[in-house]
Amino acid sequence: MIKYLGSKRLLVGSILRVVRALPDVRTVVDLFSGTARVGHALKRQGYRVRANDHNAYAATLARCYVQADREDVQADATRLIRELNALPGRPGFFTETYCLRSRFFHPRNGERIDAIRAAIAAKGLNPELEAVLLVALMEAADRVDSTTGVQMAYLKEWAPRALRPLELRLPDVLPRGPHGRCEAHERDALAAAAVLAGDVVYLDPPYNQHSYLGNYHVWETLVRWDRPEVYGVACKRMDCRTRRSVFNSRTRCVDALRGVVAAAQARTLLVSFSDEGYVSRAAMEALLATRGTVLTLAHDYKRYVGAQIGIYNPRGEKVGRVSHLRNTEFLYVVTDADTAARLAPLLSGADSRPAALSAEPAEAGG
């Protein structure tokens, strides 16, 4: 899968452990699906997943990794990937914008991306098959990019991987599960919460000012293929300035989160949040306690590579300093008191905060 700030690659094992420990779970709703890593892992375990994200690139990832079933797309996708890999490069908007005006990809690979994306657009494929090919292209481009993992800037000199030739590979599309067809949606989270029901709702909202659209604007353009007007050294889409999530606002995020929590249609909520976010552990536990008993699991991780390297200006000069190298990811489990009592011994390290004690906040930290 693509490099992604906020990816739950290291947390997915704990998420699966919680879901497996809950009784009678068949359907899990993922309202902020991102790379679809969590939804993909849940589908692999046999759960029916209903994924959602408001960004087009994320909804496409979910359509490939959650909604599409291997038996429906594998043969056609394999044939088409072979055909697309044989196409010669043809420079266009992508090469001009992201290889010449900016330097996210080497021009030789940009020309291939232009040619392959145009060919996909011309085929008029069904949504699942098109999503598989778009994800194959996105991941191929990610393997030869020249960034530290986000598209806010690019490296001053070409990364060694950027000089390798772009090659599409078949994504790891999973077979159909036992509990019904999985789904991918492209809605605002609050609107999705009102219509997507399950046994568990998983919430992984943006947690601070960093916009996923801003960090991954190239993928949004690659999927939408809309030749947007761009601005700045990073050639960001102009709508990065207007399509702002309320979860990226310090003053609005708590009310937005409270609305999603209230609207979520499931007996159990799982909420992933970082100690680098706008909402503290104590405040989050108090908010979630309105829905039931809260169990909190804390996980200590190294920060993403860009944060470890530091901040550089467009001239390649280091500015500012690295403040810290590690952060804590919290996984909050919100369920009824009886289920929480049975669950707590199975979750080593979990701190229980019953709803009746929500006025007594947990200490900050892990």
Summarize the structure.
The chain has 366 residues and is an alpha/beta fold. Helices cover 38% and strands 15% of the residues.
- Per CATH, the class of the largest domain reads Alpha Beta
Euclidean distance between termini CA atoms? 29 Å
* CATH architecture descriptor name of the largest domain: 3-Layer(aba) Sandwich
Query: For the largest beta sheet, what order do the strands appear in spatially?
Result: 3-2-1-4-7-11-8-12
CATH superfamily label of the largest domain = Vaccinia Virus protein VP39
Strand content: 5-15%
Number of strands: 12
Biggest beta sheet summary: 8 strands, mixed
What does this structure look like?
The chain is globular. The protein is α/β, with parallel strands linked by helices. Mean pLDDT is 90; it is low at 303-309 and 354-366. The protein is built from 14 helices and 12 strands. The protein has 2 domains: 1-62 and 180-206 and 245-366, 3-Layer(aba) Sandwich (Rossmann fold), CATH 3.40.50.150; 70-173 and 213-244, no CATH class. It is 38% helix and 15% strand. α2 (37-44) links the parallel β1 and β2 (48-52). α3 packs across α7. The strands form 3 sheets. Strands 3-2-1-4-7-11-8-12 form an 8-stranded mixed β-sheet, with helices on both faces. Strands 5-6 form a two-stranded antiparallel sheet. It has a two-stranded antiparallel ribbon with strand order 9-10.
